[in-house]
Write a structure and sequence with these properties.
The protein has a domain of 211 residues. 55% of the residues lie in helices and 6% in strands. The chain has 18 helices and six strands. Strands 1-3-6-2 form a four-stranded mixed sheet, with helices on both faces. It has a two-stranded antiparallel ribbon with strand order 4-5. A hairpin with a 3-residue loop joins strand 4 and strand 5. 43% of the residues are buried. The protein binds zinc ion. Zinc ion binds next to strand 1, helix 13 and helix 14.
Length: 395
Protein backbone atom coordinates (compact mmCIF):
# COMPACT_ATOMS: atom_id res chain seq x y z
CA UNK A 1 0.00 0.00 0.00
CA UNK A 2 3.03 2.21 0.46
CA UNK A 3 2.78 4.26 -2.72
CA UNK A 4 -0.92 4.05 -3.27
CA UNK A 5 -2.12 6.86 -1.05
CA UNK A 6 -0.77 9.87 -2.98
CA UNK A 7 -1.76 8.27 -6.26
CA UNK A 8 -5.36 7.61 -5.41
CA UNK A 9 -6.00 11.30 -5.11
CA UNK A 10 -5.07 11.84 -8.72
CA UNK A 11 -6.36 8.72 -10.36
CA UNK A 12 -9.49 9.41 -12.25
CA UNK A 13 -11.02 6.03 -12.17
CA UNK A 14 -14.18 5.21 -13.93
CA UNK A 15 -16.01 3.04 -11.52
CA UNK A 16 -19.15 1.17 -12.11
CA UNK A 17 -21.17 -0.29 -9.31
CA UNK A 18 -23.18 -3.37 -9.64
CA UNK A 19 -26.26 -3.83 -7.54
CA UNK A 20 -26.40 -6.32 -4.79
CA UNK A 21 -29.61 -7.90 -5.89
CA UNK A 22 -29.20 -11.63 -5.79
CA UNK A 23 -30.73 -13.60 -8.58
CA UNK A 24 -33.36 -16.12 -7.55
CA UNK A 25 -32.12 -18.86 -9.74
CA UNK A 26 -28.56 -19.27 -10.92
CA UNK A 27 -28.10 -20.56 -14.44
CA UNK A 28 -26.18 -23.79 -14.89
CA UNK A 29 -22.58 -22.83 -14.29
CA UNK A 30 -19.70 -23.89 -16.49
CA UNK A 31 -18.60 -26.14 -13.69
CA UNK A 32 -21.96 -27.88 -13.55
CA UNK A 33 -22.18 -28.36 -17.27
CA UNK A 34 -18.71 -29.88 -17.35
CA UNK A 35 -19.74 -32.32 -14.65
CA UNK A 36 -22.83 -33.43 -16.47
CA UNK A 37 -22.86 -37.18 -17.01
CA UNK A 38 -20.06 -37.91 -14.51
CA UNK A 39 -20.43 -39.38 -11.05
CA UNK A 40 -21.10 -36.04 -9.44
CA UNK A 41 -20.69 -36.90 -5.78
CA UNK A 42 -17.20 -38.25 -6.35
CA UNK A 43 -16.22 -35.18 -8.38
CA UNK A 44 -17.65 -32.92 -5.73
CA UNK A 45 -15.78 -34.72 -2.96
CA UNK A 46 -12.52 -34.45 -4.87
CA UNK A 47 -13.09 -30.77 -5.38
CA UNK A 48 -13.90 -30.27 -1.70
CA UNK A 49 -10.71 -32.08 -0.76
CA UNK A 50 -8.65 -29.98 -3.14
CA UNK A 51 -10.17 -26.78 -1.78
CA UNK A 52 -9.57 -27.88 1.82
CA UNK A 53 -5.97 -28.52 0.89
CA UNK A 54 -5.64 -25.12 -0.75
CA UNK A 55 -7.11 -23.45 2.31
CA UNK A 56 -4.75 -25.36 4.59
CA UNK A 57 -1.74 -24.01 2.69
CA UNK A 58 -2.68 -20.38 3.36
CA UNK A 59 -0.08 -18.67 5.56
CA UNK A 60 -1.11 -17.39 8.97
CA UNK A 61 -1.11 -13.86 7.63
CA UNK A 62 -3.90 -14.56 5.16
CA UNK A 63 -6.52 -12.89 7.35
CA UNK A 64 -4.73 -9.56 7.05
CA UNK A 65 -4.71 -9.88 3.31
CA UNK A 66 -8.37 -10.82 3.28
CA UNK A 67 -9.28 -7.89 5.50
CA UNK A 68 -7.30 -5.53 3.31
CA UNK A 69 -9.15 -6.74 0.21
CA UNK A 70 -12.53 -6.49 1.81
CA UNK A 71 -11.93 -3.05 3.32
CA UNK A 72 -10.69 -1.69 0.05
CA UNK A 73 -13.47 -3.23 -1.99
CA UNK A 74 -16.10 -1.77 0.25
CA UNK A 75 -14.50 1.65 0.35
CA UNK A 76 -13.01 2.37 -3.01
CA UNK A 77 -14.22 -0.18 -5.48
CA UNK A 78 -17.97 0.05 -5.59
CA UNK A 79 -18.22 -2.29 -8.57
CA UNK A 80 -17.09 -5.11 -6.30
CA UNK A 81 -19.33 -4.27 -3.39
CA UNK A 82 -21.82 -6.90 -4.29
CA UNK A 83 -19.08 -9.53 -4.14
CA UNK A 84 -17.82 -8.22 -0.83
CA UNK A 85 -21.31 -7.94 0.57
CA UNK A 86 -22.06 -11.50 -0.38
CA UNK A 87 -18.87 -12.63 1.30
CA UNK A 88 -19.71 -10.70 4.42
CA UNK A 89 -23.42 -11.41 4.30
CA UNK A 90 -24.23 -7.71 4.28
CA UNK A 91 -27.80 -6.83 3.39
CA UNK A 92 -28.46 -5.65 -0.16
CA UNK A 93 -28.74 -1.88 -0.54
CA UNK A 94 -31.80 0.08 -1.54
CA UNK A 95 -30.10 0.80 -4.75
CA UNK A 96 -31.80 -1.63 -7.05
CA UNK A 97 -32.33 0.38 -10.21
CA UNK A 98 -31.30 -2.25 -12.62
CA UNK A 99 -29.52 -0.65 -15.54
CA UNK A 100 -28.66 -3.05 -18.37
CA UNK A 101 -24.93 -3.01 -17.57
CA UNK A 102 -25.55 -3.93 -13.91
CA UNK A 103 -27.94 -6.64 -14.88
CA UNK A 104 -25.44 -8.00 -17.34
CA UNK A 105 -22.59 -8.09 -14.80
CA UNK A 106 -24.84 -9.61 -12.17
CA UNK A 107 -25.73 -12.43 -14.53
CA UNK A 108 -22.03 -12.95 -15.24
CA UNK A 109 -21.51 -13.39 -11.49
CA UNK A 110 -24.39 -15.69 -10.69
CA UNK A 111 -22.19 -18.81 -10.61
CA UNK A 112 -19.74 -17.26 -8.11
CA UNK A 113 -20.28 -19.37 -5.02
CA UNK A 114 -18.75 -18.81 -1.56
CA UNK A 115 -15.48 -20.58 -2.38
CA UNK A 116 -15.00 -18.58 -5.57
CA UNK A 117 -15.60 -15.34 -3.69
CA UNK A 118 -13.47 -16.30 -0.69
CA UNK A 119 -10.44 -17.09 -2.82
CA UNK A 120 -10.92 -14.00 -4.97
CA UNK A 121 -10.83 -11.86 -1.85
CA UNK A 122 -8.07 -13.64 0.02
CA UNK A 123 -5.70 -13.53 -2.95
CA UNK A 124 -6.69 -10.00 -3.97
CA UNK A 125 -7.22 -11.03 -7.60
CA UNK A 126 -10.21 -8.71 -8.09
CA UNK A 127 -7.76 -5.85 -7.82
CA UNK A 128 -4.46 -7.19 -9.11
CA UNK A 129 -5.04 -6.62 -12.86
CA UNK A 130 -6.05 -3.01 -12.13
CA UNK A 131 -3.21 -2.27 -9.71
CA UNK A 132 -0.61 -4.04 -11.80
CA UNK A 133 -1.69 -1.98 -14.82
CA UNK A 134 -1.59 1.18 -12.74
CA UNK A 135 1.93 0.65 -11.45
CA UNK A 136 3.77 -1.59 -13.87
CA UNK A 137 2.23 -1.25 -17.32
CA UNK A 138 4.33 1.71 -18.33
CA UNK A 139 5.43 0.94 -21.85
CA UNK A 140 3.41 1.45 -25.02
CA UNK A 141 5.02 -1.65 -26.54
CA UNK A 142 2.94 -4.78 -27.25
CA UNK A 143 -0.38 -3.30 -26.19
CA UNK A 144 -3.68 -4.82 -27.27
CA UNK A 145 -7.26 -4.10 -26.28
CA UNK A 146 -9.99 -6.64 -25.59
CA UNK A 147 -9.47 -10.24 -24.49
CA UNK A 148 -8.63 -11.21 -28.08
CA UNK A 149 -7.53 -7.82 -29.33
CA UNK A 150 -11.00 -7.10 -30.72
CA UNK A 151 -10.84 -3.41 -29.72
CA UNK A 152 -7.22 -2.76 -30.66
CA UNK A 153 -7.99 -1.04 -33.94
CA UNK A 154 -10.76 1.18 -32.52
CA UNK A 155 -8.78 2.18 -29.45
CA UNK A 156 -5.56 2.95 -31.31
CA UNK A 157 -7.41 4.95 -33.93
CA UNK A 158 -9.44 6.91 -31.35
CA UNK A 159 -6.38 7.66 -29.23
CA UNK A 160 -4.52 9.00 -32.27
CA UNK A 161 -7.58 11.01 -33.23
CA UNK A 162 -7.98 12.54 -29.76
CA UNK A 163 -4.34 13.61 -29.76
CA UNK A 164 -4.92 15.35 -33.10
CA UNK A 165 -8.20 16.89 -31.88
CA UNK A 166 -6.71 18.39 -28.76
CA UNK A 167 -3.96 21.01 -28.60
CA UNK A 168 -2.39 19.65 -25.42
CA UNK A 169 1.11 18.19 -25.38
CA UNK A 170 0.72 14.45 -25.88
CA UNK A 171 4.34 13.38 -26.32
CA UNK A 172 5.00 10.56 -23.92
CA UNK A 173 1.33 9.94 -23.19
CA UNK A 174 0.56 6.24 -23.46
CA UNK A 175 -2.49 4.02 -23.59
CA UNK A 176 -2.42 0.48 -22.23
CA UNK A 177 -4.75 -2.49 -22.05
CA UNK A 178 -5.91 -4.01 -18.76
CA UNK A 179 -6.20 -7.79 -18.94
CA UNK A 180 -7.25 -10.36 -16.34
CA UNK A 181 -5.01 -12.86 -18.11
CA UNK A 182 -2.02 -11.32 -16.33
CA UNK A 183 -3.11 -13.30 -13.26
CA UNK A 184 -1.53 -16.32 -14.97
CA UNK A 185 1.74 -14.50 -15.59
CA UNK A 186 3.83 -15.72 -12.68
CA UNK A 187 6.58 -13.11 -13.02
CA UNK A 188 4.11 -10.23 -13.18
CA UNK A 189 2.20 -11.43 -10.12
CA UNK A 190 5.42 -11.93 -8.14
CA UNK A 191 6.71 -8.49 -9.11
CA UNK A 192 3.43 -6.89 -8.11
CA UNK A 193 3.09 -8.84 -4.85
CA UNK A 194 6.59 -7.92 -3.68
CA UNK A 195 5.97 -4.26 -4.36
CA UNK A 196 2.40 -3.92 -3.15
CA UNK A 197 2.26 -6.34 -0.22
CA UNK A 198 5.96 -6.09 0.62
CA UNK A 199 6.32 -9.88 0.54
CA UNK A 200 9.60 -11.75 0.22
CA UNK A 201 10.39 -13.44 -3.11
CA UNK A 202 9.40 -16.77 -1.55
CA UNK A 203 6.05 -15.54 -0.22
CA UNK A 204 5.28 -13.71 -3.45
CA UNK A 205 5.97 -16.92 -5.38
CA UNK A 206 3.59 -18.77 -3.06
CA UNK A 207 0.76 -16.34 -3.87
CA UNK A 208 1.52 -16.37 -7.60
CA UNK A 209 1.37 -20.17 -7.66
CA UNK A 210 -1.79 -20.23 -5.55
CA UNK A 211 -3.44 -17.79 -7.95
CA UNK A 212 -2.51 -19.98 -10.92
CA UNK A 213 -3.96 -23.08 -9.19
CA UNK A 214 -7.15 -21.22 -8.34
CA UNK A 215 -7.66 -19.79 -11.81
CA UNK A 216 -7.23 -23.34 -13.13
CA UNK A 217 -9.46 -24.84 -10.41
CA UNK A 218 -12.43 -22.51 -10.83
CA UNK A 219 -14.00 -22.21 -14.28
CA UNK A 220 -15.87 -19.19 -12.86
CA UNK A 221 -12.67 -17.14 -13.21
CA UNK A 222 -12.68 -17.98 -16.94
CA UNK A 223 -8.89 -18.29 -17.13
CA UNK A 224 -8.64 -14.72 -15.88
CA UNK A 225 -10.95 -13.36 -18.58
CA UNK A 226 -13.97 -12.75 -16.33
CA UNK A 227 -15.04 -9.13 -16.95
CA UNK A 228 -15.10 -8.26 -13.23
CA UNK A 229 -11.28 -8.37 -13.14
CA UNK A 230 -11.06 -5.46 -15.57
CA UNK A 231 -14.33 -3.60 -15.24
CA UNK A 232 -12.85 -0.13 -15.32
CA UNK A 233 -10.80 2.44 -17.18
CA UNK A 234 -8.60 5.17 -15.74
CA UNK A 235 -6.31 8.09 -16.45
CA UNK A 236 -3.26 8.91 -14.36
CA UNK A 237 -0.79 11.82 -14.68
CA UNK A 238 2.97 11.33 -14.86
CA UNK A 239 4.03 10.27 -11.39
CA UNK A 240 7.42 9.54 -9.89
CA UNK A 241 7.02 6.42 -7.76
CA UNK A 242 10.58 5.11 -7.65
CA UNK A 243 11.60 1.63 -6.57
CA UNK A 244 10.67 -1.15 -8.98
CA UNK A 245 7.96 1.04 -10.53
CA UNK A 246 10.09 4.01 -11.51
CA UNK A 247 8.09 6.65 -13.34
CA UNK A 248 4.48 6.24 -14.34
CA UNK A 249 3.98 8.25 -17.55
CA UNK A 250 0.82 10.14 -18.46
CA UNK A 251 -1.30 7.10 -18.99
CA UNK A 252 -4.76 5.89 -19.91
CA UNK A 253 -5.79 2.29 -19.28
CA UNK A 254 -8.77 0.53 -20.80
CA UNK A 255 -10.13 -2.63 -19.17
CA UNK A 256 -11.28 -5.54 -21.32
CA UNK A 257 -14.25 -6.17 -19.02
CA UNK A 258 -15.88 -2.77 -19.28
CA UNK A 259 -15.60 -2.66 -23.07
CA UNK A 260 -17.03 -6.16 -23.30
CA UNK A 261 -19.90 -5.34 -20.97
CA UNK A 262 -21.06 -2.43 -23.09
CA UNK A 263 -20.60 -4.42 -26.28
CA UNK A 264 -22.72 -7.23 -24.86
CA UNK A 265 -25.60 -4.87 -24.11
CA UNK A 266 -25.47 -3.37 -27.60
CA UNK A 267 -23.10 -0.39 -27.40
CA UNK A 268 -19.99 -1.85 -28.99
CA UNK A 269 -20.05 0.85 -31.68
CA UNK A 270 -19.77 3.78 -29.27
CA UNK A 271 -18.62 2.69 -25.78
CA UNK A 272 -14.85 2.22 -26.36
CA UNK A 273 -14.56 5.64 -28.04
CA UNK A 274 -16.76 7.36 -25.44
CA UNK A 275 -14.97 5.90 -22.43
CA UNK A 276 -11.57 6.66 -23.93
CA UNK A 277 -12.60 10.25 -24.74
CA UNK A 278 -13.73 10.71 -21.12
CA UNK A 279 -10.37 9.48 -19.80
CA UNK A 280 -8.50 11.59 -22.35
CA UNK A 281 -10.35 14.64 -21.03
CA UNK A 282 -8.82 13.92 -17.61
CA UNK A 283 -5.40 14.06 -19.29
CA UNK A 284 -6.34 17.50 -20.62
CA UNK A 285 -7.22 18.52 -17.06
CA UNK A 286 -3.95 17.15 -15.67
CA UNK A 287 -1.93 19.03 -18.24
CA UNK A 288 -3.75 22.33 -17.82
CA UNK A 289 -3.37 21.96 -14.06
CA UNK A 290 -7.13 21.95 -13.67
CA UNK A 291 -7.62 18.56 -12.13
CA UNK A 292 -8.91 18.90 -8.61
CA UNK A 293 -7.08 16.15 -6.80
CA UNK A 294 -8.33 17.07 -3.35
CA UNK A 295 -11.08 14.50 -3.54
CA UNK A 296 -13.79 16.83 -2.27
CA UNK A 297 -17.26 16.02 -3.68
CA UNK A 298 -17.42 19.39 -5.48
CA UNK A 299 -13.95 18.99 -6.98
CA UNK A 300 -14.63 15.45 -8.11
CA UNK A 301 -17.94 16.50 -9.55
CA UNK A 302 -16.51 19.32 -11.66
CA UNK A 303 -13.68 17.03 -12.84
CA UNK A 304 -16.22 14.49 -14.01
CA UNK A 305 -18.62 16.99 -15.54
CA UNK A 306 -15.83 18.54 -17.59
CA UNK A 307 -14.72 15.08 -18.75
CA UNK A 308 -18.29 14.26 -19.79
CA UNK A 309 -18.65 17.59 -21.60
CA UNK A 310 -15.31 17.31 -23.39
CA UNK A 311 -16.00 13.75 -24.42
CA UNK A 312 -19.41 14.72 -25.87
CA UNK A 313 -17.74 17.65 -27.69
CA UNK A 314 -15.20 15.33 -29.29
CA UNK A 315 -17.63 12.51 -30.07
CA UNK A 316 -20.15 14.74 -31.86
CA UNK A 317 -17.74 17.25 -33.47
CA UNK A 318 -17.55 17.11 -37.26
CA UNK A 319 -13.75 16.94 -37.01
CA UNK A 320 -13.81 14.68 -33.95
CA UNK A 321 -15.44 11.25 -33.99
CA UNK A 322 -18.36 12.78 -35.92
CA UNK A 323 -20.89 10.44 -34.34
CA UNK A 324 -24.64 10.90 -34.48
CA UNK A 325 -25.59 12.77 -31.30
CA UNK A 326 -28.68 10.58 -30.91
CA UNK A 327 -26.48 7.51 -30.72
CA UNK A 328 -24.05 9.12 -28.28
CA UNK A 329 -27.00 10.13 -26.13
CA UNK A 330 -28.42 6.60 -26.09
CA UNK A 331 -25.10 5.34 -24.79
CA UNK A 332 -24.77 8.12 -22.22
CA UNK A 333 -28.25 7.37 -20.94
CA UNK A 334 -27.02 3.94 -19.90
CA UNK A 335 -23.51 4.99 -18.99
CA UNK A 336 -24.43 7.94 -16.80
CA UNK A 337 -27.26 6.26 -14.97
CA UNK A 338 -24.72 4.39 -12.94
CA UNK A 339 -24.11 7.71 -11.16
CA UNK A 340 -26.42 7.94 -8.24
CA UNK A 341 -26.04 4.60 -6.56
CA UNK A 342 -22.33 4.26 -7.06
CA UNK A 343 -21.07 6.31 -4.22
CA UNK A 344 -21.86 7.16 -0.67
CA UNK A 345 -22.26 10.78 -1.63
CA UNK A 346 -24.64 11.40 -4.48
CA UNK A 347 -22.56 14.40 -5.51
CA UNK A 348 -19.44 12.37 -5.78
CA UNK A 349 -19.28 12.04 -9.55
CA UNK A 350 -22.29 14.20 -10.30
CA UNK A 351 -25.81 12.92 -10.58
CA UNK A 352 -26.88 11.33 -13.86
CA UNK A 353 -28.92 14.47 -14.65
CA UNK A 354 -25.93 16.76 -14.07
CA UNK A 355 -23.66 14.58 -16.13
CA UNK A 356 -26.12 14.38 -19.00
CA UNK A 357 -26.56 18.17 -18.86
CA UNK A 358 -22.78 18.56 -19.11
CA UNK A 359 -22.64 16.19 -22.08
CA UNK A 360 -25.53 17.95 -23.84
CA UNK A 361 -23.76 21.25 -23.31
CA UNK A 362 -20.56 19.80 -24.84
CA UNK A 363 -22.56 18.61 -27.82
CA UNK A 364 -24.22 22.03 -28.22
CA UNK A 365 -20.80 23.70 -28.37
CA UNK A 366 -19.86 21.44 -31.28
CA UNK A 367 -23.24 21.73 -32.98
CA UNK A 368 -23.87 25.46 -32.60
CA UNK A 369 -20.42 26.58 -33.64
CA UNK A 370 -20.47 29.24 -36.35
CA UNK A 371 -17.70 27.47 -38.19
CA UNK A 372 -18.42 23.71 -38.04
CA UNK A 373 -14.84 22.79 -38.85
CA UNK A 374 -13.36 24.89 -36.08
CA UNK A 375 -11.97 23.12 -33.03
CA UNK A 376 -11.69 25.08 -29.80
CA UNK A 377 -8.40 24.89 -27.95
CA UNK A 378 -8.62 22.95 -24.69
CA UNK A 379 -8.11 26.22 -22.83
CA UNK A 380 -11.02 27.88 -24.68
CA UNK A 381 -13.25 24.87 -24.07
CA UNK A 382 -12.44 24.83 -20.36
CA UNK A 383 -13.07 28.57 -20.02
CA UNK A 384 -16.52 28.16 -21.59
CA UNK A 385 -17.20 25.17 -19.39
CA UNK A 386 -16.28 27.04 -16.21
CA UNK A 387 -18.76 29.75 -17.13
CA UNK A 388 -21.45 27.13 -17.66
CA UNK A 389 -20.71 25.05 -14.56
CA UNK A 390 -22.98 26.92 -12.14
CA UNK A 391 -25.87 26.39 -14.56
CA UNK A 392 -25.08 22.68 -14.97
CA UNK A 393 -25.12 21.98 -11.24
CA UNK A 394 -28.06 24.25 -10.39
CA UNK A 395 -30.55 21.71 -11.61
ZN1 LIG B 1 -13.84 10.35 -14.92
Amino acid sequence: MKHLKPLTTVIATLLIIITSCKKDSAPLSNADSKLAGKPQTEMALNKQARLRKLRSTLPATYRERLQKSVDKLLLTHPQYRNVARQALAIEPTECSDATPIRQWLNVELTDWDDDVIFFALVTGILDIPFLHTLYFENSPANQYFGVNGEYTHTIEKTFKDLKRFSNIQTNGMIIVGMHGKMLLDREKVIQFDRFYYGDSQEDAAFWADLITSLVNEFPQYRNGDHPIFTFNAFAVPRTEVGGPVGTIPNKIAMGDGIMDGYARIGFGDVAPQAILAHEFAHQVQFQLGLYDGEGSPEGTRSNELLADAYSAYYLSHARGASMQWKRVQQFLQVFLNIGDCSFDSSNHHGTPAERMAAAKWGYSIANNAQKQGHILTSQQFVALFNKQLPVLVAR
